[in-house]
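[job 4471] stage=fold_predict status=RUNNING
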Amino acid sequence: MTLPPSATRRGHDATPCALDFAQILYIRQEARHRAQTYLEELQTHLQEVLEQRGYRDVRVQQPDAPLSTQDVASMSSLQIRMKLPLEGLESPEFEVHLPLTVTYGGKLVVQGAQVNNFTVPEPFTHPLGTDIAEVAEMLVQGFSERYMEYLLQSAGRAPLPALQNA
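[job 4471] inference complete, writing structure tokens
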């Protein structure tokens, strides 16, 4: 295989050397550590937001250890179980599954989220640079609205804003 001529470095071809690989791998390692810390903090904030919204006995679990791949800094799944605050419900248990991914590019991606076995078709993508508590609030708000929309549509009712205006 013949490569095009390249600029020289220290009198040698500009091919990657051991130090180049070490530096890149170190940067990726640090990105994985930051991503895992971010997901841990997000888990804490999600629980706080849900409790503030009136859910009872909120339990946020991470069934498996976070994973990293060549393309993803960290992946984790959260199982959230909680109870609705209305007495007399046959099933007051409420369950959410959030597959969380942090990319090396610095984005949080939630795709395939499930709320009580309803799969949210749209992905949620957000840059990591913002306040984690704000991101937790946006996740809860967005998935709550989407699930309510699904419940109302499946019951043959008008969307929520139309009901509030009536």
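[job 4471] summary: Helices lie at 18-52, 132-154, 160-165.
[job 4471] exit 0
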